[in-house]
Specification:
Two copies of one chain form a homodimer. By secondary structure, chain A is an alpha+beta fold. Helices cover 31% and strands 26% of the residues of chain A. The mean pLDDT of chain A is 92. Chain A binds a DNA duplex (30 and 30 nucleotides) through residues 16, 18, 20-21, 37-38, 41, 47-54, 57, 74.
DNA sequence: CCGGTTGTGCAACTCAGTTGCAAAAGAGTT
DNA sequence: AACTCTTTTGCAACTGAGTTGCACAACCGG
């Protein structure tokens, strides 16, 4: 993805593309995997954590990123590709490596569906496999 | 499950059954769903949070509970039923209600398996559906 | 150039969870 | 029971991730 594409994406979601925001969005493109706030903080030393916090909140509100549970204990943000501007859609499984702590998207693997018991109404599904990634095996 | 069973379970996992620990384990039996630390804190006002913290760490180490991501942003602990004393096993899906914030075990629904790409080595799988529970619909 | 809106950087704050430590409770021995 | 050693408990202090308040800077339309 080019930087111009990112800017387009942000505009399309009603987010003004400032320098900080572009850097943060670029971090997702560069790593190509869901990032935690602290990972972004480490990667972008020059950007204050308050800016990162507020930017992620904004991105989330505008459906530019969505949230998924970290394999460890927190949450991660993933750049939306197929999400519309008012609805999140994230249909692939994720893999959390217990050694390096990274989370990967396995984009080719759709989440298998299940049928819920009477009364439960699903909105979204998260499928997370924990184990060792190719680099850490 | 009777209180004597809980004590047996604890003994079997090498955990000395003190009054506090029995109360904490009972909370899981009573609620019959994964609990967060703060939920336990609320339910057992008389038990100090440091005791809860240390007890959960111990339970976890001895495979009496295992951990799963909270649908929200933290983690929850679930009493192991089928886990051996040195290995966790948790093969059913979970449901997180976005309104009341509770997490439910759907014990009858096994997690559908997927085949991972070359190089990824799975250890455990978590399948979490978010939505509205029967009480909150 | 001006005035209003939006974004930024710093410091202060919050809150869940953890840790240090001394007192209390247990368990085994004589 | 008295003694000693180990484990658990309760309190207070600490920690760290994340958020918020606020003044200043950047931006934008007229």
């Amino acid at each position: 993805m080019q930087e111009t594409d990112i800017i387009d994406l942000m505009m399309h979601h009603g987010v003004k593309p400032t320098a900080n925001r572009i850097m943060i969005a670029n971090a997702f493109v560069k790593e190509h995997r869901p990032l935690s706030m602290s990972e972004i903080e480490t990667q972008l030393e020059s950007v204050d954590k308050s800016v990162i916090s507020r930017t992620l909140a904004l991105f989330r509100e505008r459906h530019l990123v969505h949230v998924l549970p970290d394999g460890g204990d927190g949450i991660r943000y993933e750049l939306c590709h197929s999400c519309s501007d008012d609805h999140d859609d994230d249909a692939h499984i994720h893999f959390y490596c217990g050694r390096c702590g990274k989370t990967f998207c396995l984009e080719d693997i759709p989440i298998p569906e299940v049928s819920l018991p009477e009364g439960y109404q699903a909105e979204s599904v998260n499928y997370m496999v924990t184990g060792l990634c190719p680099d850490c095996r």
